[in-house]
Amino acid sequence: MENLIIGAGPSGLSVAGRLRKAGIPFEILEKTDSVGSAWRNHYDRLHLHTDKKYSALPHLPFPKDYPTFIPKNQYIAYIDQYADYFNIKPIFNQEVTAVRKSGDLWVVKTKDKVYEAKNVLIATGYNRVPKYPTLKGQGNFKGEIIHSEKYKNGKPYKNKNVLVVGYGNSGAEIALDLYESGAKAFVSIRNPVNIVKREFKGRSTQSLAIFFIRFGNTVYDFIARLFKKLVLKAVEGTGIPISPLAPSEQLRTLGKVAVIDVGTLAQIKAGNITVMPDIEILTDHEVIFKNGKKLPVDAIVMATGYHARLEEIVTDIAPILNERGYPKAMWFNEESYSGLYFVGFNLPLTGILRDINLSSEKIVSHILKGK
């Protein structure tokens, strides 16, 4: 076959939609039984943190009645509509186990089938495998420990002490959800973070980022530091460690996205969510922190992020991955990687879904040039 897409999330669907629009044949493999499976499994209260104006997939705008920040269920409905609109019919339950180059073709293996294609477009995402660090003393702990990928809502935790480990976007929002569900929420923050508001004076923070990035990193960093001063005042007395870097610098140098605040900070300020430092050790029913404080805990939610783990799938891929395990580019000119494409692995200042849209256009254009 000409083109084989791996993954039927927003990234894979974006490429598929563009290929369909251009009349280019393709097949798409999906390890689960539905498109957008990661979105279906996210926690219930999730909304897009990016403006709908910049978050649609190629060639199909969101319905006009969708809000600026789209809730999970509406986004899933849109993904389903997108697959129907472009007649995208993935081959489901095909988890890819190996991808390797053989002559001029790429050989893709699943548990029960083998595919060959001129071009392979990997759209498995940077959140394919949960990061699940083992806490010291974890074997002694009698309470529940889950990764954030398994968290749905706070209802089971009402009137319980729950510690969220990690203060990225998921961790911050899960802590808020726990509090609003009647749990006593705590959040352990080990590393310094940056926090930005989702909106500023009626405009999405994303739209401001898109405007200022055109002036280059120096100007963008300067503007980001000005906005950061507002946040520094807001976090005083909360115990949240703030990065010395501007949000834009932090993303470029460390690959760490700023936390887009959707109300968690206000509840921390109000004393309804408690910030704790890094964990030293677990006992059977307590968490002991680096500062010596002890906390009885019923459950722990590990909001510790994900790995792409492309090296587990693609043979000899290490030379084209960066230090965080993501592809250094969308495609490569070396013969050994010719025909291999990556979409959905960038972490841009201006929004992941917007970047997926733009990247898919570049990839399909490159494929057309090679025909």
Automatic annotation (TrEMBL):
Lineage of producing organism: Bacteria, Pseudomonadati, Bacteroidota, Cytophagia, Cytophagales
GO molecular function: flavin adenine dinucleotide binding; monooxygenase activity; NADP binding
Keyword annotations of the record: Oxidoreductase
Keyword Amino-acid biosynthesis attached: no
Bilayer-crossing regions: none
Membrane as UniProt keyword: no
Coiled-coil regions listed: none
PANTHER family per the UniProt record, alphabetical: FLAVIN-BINDING MONOOXYGENASE-LIKE PROTEIN (AFU_ORTHOLOGUE AFUA_4G09220), FLAVIN-CONTAINING MONOOXYGENASE
Protein name, as recorded: NAD(P)/FAD-dependent oxidoreductase
A Pfam family reported for this protein in Swiss-Prot or TrEMBL: Pyr_redox_3
Provenance organism: Emticicia agri
